[in-house]
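User: We ran a pulldown and think these components assemble together. Before we commit to crystallization trials, I'd like a predicted model of the whole complex to look at. Sequences follow.
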Amino acid sequence: MIFGIPTSAFVGQLLIGLINGSFYALVSLGLAIIFGLLHVVNFAHGALYMLGAYVTWGLLEYLGIGYWPALLIAPVAVAALGLAIERLMLRRLYGLEHHYALLLTFGLALIFEGALRMKFGSTGQPYPNPISAGVDLDATFIPGYRLWVIAASLGLCGATWFVTERTKIGAYLRAANENAPLVRTFGVSVPRIMMVTYSLGVGLAGLSGAMAAPIYQVSPHMGSGMITVVFAVVAIGGMGSLLGSIVAGFGLGVIEGLTKAFLPGAAEIVIFVVMIVTLTVRPYGLFGQELR
Amino acid sequence: MTGLSPRARRIAAAVAVAVLLGAPFVAYPLFLVEILTFALLAASVNLLISYVGLLSFGHAMFFGSSAYVTGYAIKTLGLEPVSGILLGTAVAAGIGWVTGQLAIRRLGIYFSMVTLAFGQLAYFLALRASFTGGEDGLQDVPRRAVLGLIDLRSNVTVYYFTLAVVGAGFFVIYRLVHSPFGQVLQAIRDHEPRATSLGYRTRRCKLLVFVISAALAGMAGGVKVVGYQLATLNDITWVTSGEALLICILGGIYTLVGPAVGAMVIVSMSHYLASFAEWVLIIQGFVFVVVVMLLRRGIVGELYAWLERREEARQPAATVSPAASPERAARRPHPAEPVNQELQP
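Assistant: Here's a predicted model for the assembly, 637 residues in total across the polymer chains.
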């Protein structure tokens, strides 16, 4: 017993919280990378996460390609789609008020969600668990796949941090974020960096979707459900801050999980309540800086 | 309204009034009621975009909560429609005041995300609260007589009642925009630090517009319940917020008539596509993309621009010098045109 509830229930909800947190962190990380350089809030991010899950499911359903190859194919496919979106549409909106990019990506999200709902219906599609083994603790059984998701998410967060902070590409990226015209005078193609950044951020969403397929049901509305929560997570963590996305993502996942254990009715709204409290105390989020 | 002579403007207004008054004898009145309520909802969203530069993804929160409150007041408390709508509007304004305190602290991009999150919170609360009827919503809200005098049992009367309420809402927006306060708002939108340095309390002004906008969205929600006799979860989801935005941008932001025209197109589209319900999301998304990529001024905005070009072509070049016309000198470039790089976030 922990705080009056059975230990197994406590550990179970904590684990679910960490799993949800892994996805919140990964999705908001991609959002933060894109926002940092392009100053675009990518409303289609949730929909692209959902597309990643559908590609994974479709590969198995129609081509018999299993989970591990899909883990590579899904993000590449989604990133390619992102490349096309940036190249053909978003790029034309950079000089305009940011409303337009937001509305464009919102429209794209509607198209993706509507198209998949039409093709596959709104019921969820199950995906088999690729790792059947697990860890048997005294209190509860922890499925191996969930451990893999948490580990992979932490690894991806670390890798993203490493790429942006410790590599040459990351240095270009940060420099272009700081002063794009100056970087251009050094002969670096900023438009190309922006294109690559967008497709990388979007690819991260696709990868999260592929990882989510065996855990959640693959359904057309998993994207809009994700984006509303992730926007709150980003508001709490601070827009454009990588560390903020990671900390707030995992933190809120755990808070949500524990709320489910102690106060089941409030689990859906707890993230929004935390957002309200954070905004009252720190208007720009925990790690955010004031920006225009 | 540049490009139209005063006489042409008067004719256009007279035609519009005649169409509005005669419409229920040509089309199904409740269909027109839907257009009118969505026009007011979109106009409230448009007010924020045009005069504060903030894009709200959460106006369904005001629309929906007012719909529930009005429905509950009429059905359970036995109020007549006007006081029911006023109560709903007041509640929406109150919610707007509370959420606005937090939302307008964050500029631009943040605002859209925070309002979406607030909207989602409102949705979950409506789903769980007991007085909203959960998944079923509030059904069979009776149509009581307005102020105990005007019988609302006929759909045509309901149309005129809605027209009166929505007309009042549009009049509020018109007066607000053309008041000194409207000028202050434009100053804040165009250059907030300058407005601050001139001594305007910019945050308070923005909060006030946000509350007014929330109240107008609430008014739309309330009058919708009176006409449709039901309030459902659909009224409070982000899909409704998105629809309001779609109406704004299709009709033309920065115009007063735009939301009305946009509502006409979008609501008609939804009705004709009713048998292909699964297509609605795709088509709405497609309209978003097309408008953003190709038609950024919207229908009404493009029409104004066309009239203006025609006017310029007709007049000799000398008389159109900026000094000759104060109105023209004050005209700022349409925000859909590329702006100076340093104004970018």
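The two ends of chain B are 30 Å apart (CA to CA). That may be worth checking against your pulldown data before setting up trials.

User: Thanks, that helps.
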